[in-house]
Amino acid sequence: MAATVSSLFIYPIKSCRGISAPAAPLTPTGLRWDRQWLVVNSKGRAYTQRVEPKLALVVPELPNDAFSEDWVPSANSYLVLTAPGMSPLKVSLSQPGQITEGVSVWEWSGSALDEGEEAAKWFSDYLGKPSRLVRFNDDSQTRPVDAKYAPGHKVMFSDEYPFLLISQGSLDALNELLKEPVPINRFRPNILVNGCKPFSEDLWTEIKINKFTFSGVKLCARCKLPTINQETGIAGSEPTETLKTFRSDKALRPTGKQQGQTYFGQNLVLKESLAGVKGKIIKVGDPVNVLKMVSSPAEAAV
């Protein structure tokens, strides 16, 4: 055993606040409910904290039962959103919206389910510009990940891969170098593990959590988002400036091709099919066993 799961995080709406849960059902696209919704502009383009840091202050809440394996929403099941200066918004979990075309996030475009005028007005008022809330339409849409790293795998509105794992040791090592320590929410992982050495996760190419096998497919290249304080929505220069000093490709892969990236965390995909499997859930406290690993970060895929 290399570590144990210490926290699980789900981000129902891309770039909005996360939810910490003691257990989370697994799906091929990530933890259930993760990045299932997206805020878009009048042209259907995704809003993220990179351009709308106020999204960090939108707090989602799901019913407690939503993190049970086989829970099915009822007519009275809602995703409830709060934000500074706004009345709570209730978004039905059981009533799919109308299909809308021309939704795009990064390289992908397709149709999605529009959550209606009340949600559109709420986000438009909050952001001060025309906005709509849409939900991924997994009945008709597929968003594949980069086939170079994980052929056959898919996500909803996540940036790249279904799961992001970070160790507490890595965060602690970073915070020792910072004048002002940062919390893990700057990095928006799905799985936080404890009990391993800092940056051990760089080396993990195959791990087992509970009875499920995950492949570590690519170190996570970080964007501007870790510089945004998730409590205030205000951006600074840290922790990215410090990370550049020891977590850049120049530092980790001095003889490899330089891409000008800085890395923190390991992207994962679920190796097994979940079809017909009972107990499709991982929990805080689950052991993390390393099945395969590389010997140095220079050998890790980026």
Walk me through the structure.
The chain has 302 residues and is mainly beta. 10% of the residues lie in helices and 33% in strands. The protein is globular, with a radius of gyration of 19 Å. The two termini are 25 Å apart. GO terms for molecular function: catalytic activity; molybdenum ion binding; pyridoxal phosphate binding. InterPro entries: MoCF_Sase_C, MOCOS_middle, Pyrv_Knase-like_insert_dom_sf. One of its GO terms (biological process) is monocarboxylic acid metabolic process.
Give a concise summary.
This protein is mainly β.
Walk me through the topology.
Blueprint: E1 3-10, E2 19-21, E3 23-27, E4 30-31, E5 37-40, E6 59-61, E7 78-82, E8 89-92, E9 98-105, E10 108-114, H1 117-127, E11 132-136, E12 143-144, E13 154-155, E14 163-167, H2 168-175, E15 191-194, E16 204-209, E17 212-221, H3 240-246, H4 249-252, E18 263-270, E19 281-283, E20 287-293
Parallel strand pairs: 14-15
Antiparallel strand pairs: 1-2, 1-15, 1-20, 3-4, 3-19, 5-11, 6-7, 7-8, 9-10, 10-11, 12-13, 14-18, 16-17, 16-20, 17-18
Total helical segments: 4
- How are the strands ordered across the major sheet? 1-15-14-18-17-16-20
How large is the radius of gyration? 19 Å
Structural class determined from secondary elements: mainly beta
Stretches with pLDDT under 50, minimum 5 residues: none
Organism: Punica granatum
Protein name: Mitochondrial amidoxime-reducing component 1-like
Domain MOSC: 128-291
Pfam families: MOSC, MOSC_N
